Amino acid sequence: GQSLEQPSEVTAVEGAIVQINCTYQTSGFYGLSWYQQHDGGAPTFLSYNALDGLEETGRFSSFLSRSDSYGYLLLQELQMKDSASYFCAVRDSTGANNLFFGTGTRLTVIP
Amino acid sequence: ETGVTQSPTHLIKTRGQQVTLRCSSQSGHNTVSWYQQALGQGPQFIFQYYREEENGRGNFPPRFSGLQFPNYSSELNVNALELDDSALYLCASSQTQLSNNEQFFGPGTRLTVL
Question: Nearest Cα to B98, choosing from A44, A54, A96?
Fold first, then answer.
């Protein structure tokens, strides 16, 4: 089977940095993805790590350590609009070519 | 470039009824995946279609069925609706069945079963 663990809620101050962790268990690994979803909106793709290390895209960075089955999403210079749910996801290991999502981390940015 | 669209946006049905949800994939995408998202949870994979054929299925009963058409649009059908089927139904498209690290989601259909 597969499982993904993320903190359920995180609160951070505008302008600060926040890190959202994700640990995973999967029998086959094809990379870790991150998606953002605002209330009432569609999930939107943020980043993807197939290999160990840090990937940076503007204010967002994502890190992967395959040996630790661990990744994180780092959000810098937080803005109020970053308040949303953030999901880590892995590709299904059974060959069904779908994404298996974690339960999500609700980020609240406060002034 | 047109994004992923879904219809209807909201739907209310009663237990035992049947429902059909529709999705138009993003231009150039031949793969459509359907997900169910319960309140406060992550999306759960229902099934995927690639070039009009089912290409994988999650842990959902047979009363959840689907179709993909030659233009790569897709339908999700749910028969014998149950209260627990109340959820946001998302469709996502991608360029190939292997590029699911980046999927493009539609705005979803909010289904309420009474």
Answer: A96
Contact A44 B55 (CB under 8 A): no
| Minimum-distance CB partner of B45 among A48, A100, A102 | A100
pLDDT in the model for residue A1: 73
pLDDT in tens, B21-31: 999 998 888 88
Task: Name residues whose C-beta falls within 8 Å of residue B88's C-beta, 6 or more positions apart in sequence.
Answer: B36, B37, B38, B108, B109, B110, B111
pLDDT at res. B98: 59
Q: Does B71 touch chain A (CB under 8 A)?
A: no
Confidence grade of residue A93 (pLDDT, cut at 50, 70, 90): low
User: B30: exposed, middle or buried (C-beta count within 10 Å: 0-12, 13-18, 19+)?
Assistant: middle
Give dist(CA B99, CA B37) in Å, integer. 21
Residues of chain B above pLDDT 90, percent: 76
Give yes or no for a contact between B47 and B31, defined as CB atoms under 8 angstroms apart.
no
Q: Which two tokens stand for residue B104?
A: 């493009």
**Are A42 and A67 spatial neighbours (Cβ–Cβ below 8 Å)?**
no
CA distance A98 to B98: 9
